[in-house]
Amino acid sequence: MNKKLFPIFVVFVLVLIGISTWPYVVESRMPVNQFISKEKKSGMVPIVQFVTDDMQVKIAETAAAQFNEKAPTKVIVGAFKIGENQKSAEQYGMKVPGYVIFDADGKVAVQEFGVISQEKLTEIISGVHTH
């Protein structure tokens, strides 16, 4: 290869790599994905609760706190307003309040509509791979 063309070739390859990885960089910076990643690393079971108002946030957080008092597996709820996180909500098919629970591998274990409750957590978590 001609010595003059080599730097152009290297720049071309770097540009192609940058273009191909950019969508993943953008996706990883989304608040929902950052929450999931952070809580998985801390050992908690992340629950993404999509909400439309602040009362739903309180209900979900209270349910998680009550569950954590009694259960050995600890969960954490990240509440995200659907209107402010439309791309993430669409990714999980949420147009109304709903929640997504992730397993230890970061895969969706449960995905349902509504606001999470302590009873539902108790029912669900026993079947979720958490370690």
Describe this structure in words.
There is one protein chain. By secondary structure, the protein is an alpha+beta fold. The chain has one domain: Glutaredoxin (3-Layer(aba) Sandwich). Helix content is 50%, strand content 19%. It contains five helices and four strands. Strands 2-1-3-4 form a four-stranded mixed sheet, with helices on both faces. Helix 3 packs across helix 5. The radius of gyration is 20 Å and the shape is elongated. The model has no long low-confidence stretch (mean pLDDT 83).
List the helices and strands and how they pair.
Blueprint: H1 6-28, H2 31-42, E1 45-51, H3 54-70, E2 75-81, H4 86-91, E3 98-102, E4 108-113, H5 118-125
Parallel strand pairs: 1-2
Antiparallel strand pairs: 1-3, 3-4
Helix pairs in contact: 3-5
List keywords for this structure.
131 residues; alpha+beta; 5 helices
Helix content: 40-55%
Structural class: alpha+beta
Numbering strands along the chain, what is their spatial order in the largest sheet? 2-1-3-4
Termini gap: 51 Å
CATH H-level superfamily title: Glutaredoxin
User: What's the number of helices?
Assistant: 5
Largest sheet: 4 strands, mixed
How confident is the prediction overall: mean pLDDT?
Answer: 83
* Beta-strand residue fraction: 15-25%
The CATH topology is what? Glutaredoxin
How many domain units? 1
Give the radius of gyration. 20 Å
**What oligomeric state do these chains adopt?**
single chain
Shape: elongated
Low confidence ranges = none
